[in-house]
Predict the structure.
Amino acid sequence: MAKSMPEMEEYKYGFRDEHKAIFQSGKGLTPEIVRTISEMKNEPEWMLEFRLKSLEQFNKMPMPRWGGDLDDLDFDDIQYYVKPSEKQGKTWEEVPQEIKETFDKLGIPEAEQKFLAGVSAQYESEVVYHSMQEDLAKQGVIFTDTDTALREYPELMKEYFGTIIPPNDNKFAALNSAVWSGGSFIYVPKGVQCEIPLQAYFRINSENMGQFERTLIIADEGSSVHYVEGCTAPIYSTNSLHSAVVEILCKKDSRVRYTTIQNWAPNIYNLVTKRAVADENATMEWIDGNIGSKLTMKYPAVVLRGRGAKGMVLSIAVAGKGQHQDAGAKMTHLAPDTSSTIVSKSISKHGGKVTYRGLASFGRNSDGAKANIKCDTLILDNESTSDTIPYNEILNDNITLEHEATVSKVSEDQLFYLMSRGLTEDEATQMIVMGFIEPFTKELPMEYAVEMNRLIKFEMEGSIG
Amino acid sequence: MATHFVIDGLKAEIEGKEILKGINLEIKGGEIHAIMGPNGTGKSTLASALMGHPKYEVTGGSATLDGEDLLEMETDERARAGLFLAMQYPSEIPGVTNSDFLRSAINARREEGNEISLIKFIRQMEGKMKELEMNPEFAHRYLNEGFSGGEKKRNEILQMMLLDPKIVVLDEIDSGLDIDALRIVANGVNAMRSEERGFLIITHYQRLLNYITPDFVHVMMQGRIVKSGGPELAQRLENEGYDWVKEELGIVDETVGQA
């Protein structure tokens, strides 16, 4: 009854279409390539300077020696910019057929018909399709790709871009700052509540192409928005790099939720910097799902700098054969009565490795701050491993920090119980795993929960037995 | 074909220790058999071994349901063949709602493309829950998580009712039940009595048998069935305990496989 594990050739989204890019930068990274990217995008001078300085930073900074193994990552073997087509599609009809077919395979159009407020689908480095419901636009909500934002909203971009995650934050943030392309820009004006999630779909198509999207979200005072991003990538035999930067500013009394489900092919390095700053009584929630990739290093962060600000990270990580998920969260409490919650759920199987790496930091002014951290790991076989590495920095005596960690295996008795009701071993295992990640799935918009369950089901087929 | 369940010379061991030393039992559709006996005589091992718990290794004998060899099957195949075990200690599965689980279990018995419709399922589930006087909220609770002992047992009976098995093994379904719960569980079992279905009730105590009248009563000691009779045997055990059986058979220690 044991089915074989879906290996690379079965990777579900491992199709690849024949769409021809109109510009490819070629491999390697030089100031000339950075200039070319900036020039092709008709960027203002300050952005070119920002990019070139970032490139200098990138070259100066050493590779991180902690976390995952980056030895096989060769920066000279990556293509930094690919422009797929001349112009951006405004309606679905204008989108090139091959790209449409790709999205069809991913189920995007149906999704939109149902309840999407706006779809911004990134195909390679440019956003080729973008739409948004009119009522949101009327309320002054801006939802566009970051390149367009640079042209149309230069003041906002200049004011906020790179302020939450400066290029020298880490080597990969510097790299992204030098060669970024695409990503989403969202501005929600004061007091505006976006009732329906805003969504973007990202996809890497060209071999060895890095994807360096840059997302910036600004929620003005008293506003709220839920941004949803899902990622799938086709499979290639050589390494690909995905290194995004996501910056979010939650002003006073605002509320932002950022939901990601990433399902990368097993050869992708996924090295992402995500950080939000939360002002007084603002709430920032990261819902972060990581499936696949060769190595993921990702620690969504919230800097709680206003009194009463709240931060949450709810994440799952699934690591299979040859995969390492080094993921976690960072909460920095800088103001009184701030509170944070981290719930991390990890699953390792077939020799996969999951590491929870988290930081809870309390500054001198964090009187009455609270942090609650819960890490649960489910290990499906004896070859797989998990690690929990919590860091705490506490500079104030009047805080509360709770940390709870569990590691469990799928128990023989649970499997027996479910199988005694007629479920096969695979179905029983899937059911236990789905139950394990239920605290995560229940936070997803319905169609993403469905996709999540499908992905997990696919991942779990033949996992045991 | 009428249900016909035959256990012939069944032997099983756990971690190298033989617990079942040759069990013989035949159950036909419409019959209720009770296995009684003190603790540690192998009763629950029999239930687990029949269902195929991986801790128990069957070392001899056979068990067939309508001529099909159950012991050759995986646990899930035995279930789909019509065997049901109401467990003494049902597992808790966090994050999986009772109703999702029940629907999956029903659909596991149906062909792909012929799954039970959601409406029909909900009607069936709610109807049976009402019979068992279960709070409707239990449909949305996580499977057995935080259920009291009695709630777990009722949930086992609910599964039995929805899965419509041919042979039902009830492993100490009466343990931990107060008198009301006992009555409800017994009513559930009685409602399921039919010519197509056989029951094997494993219990310490006669009191369950006040509500469910067995056709045959067997006493288990030292990993074997040592005495069989009708309902009057259960009555005598209730009144006089097990010592007379031990005396009659010359048994000093009735337990099996104890250290």
Observations:
- The mean pLDDT of chain A is 82.
- The CA atoms of residues 9 and 235 of chain A lie 8 Å apart.
- The radius of gyration of chain A is 21 Å.
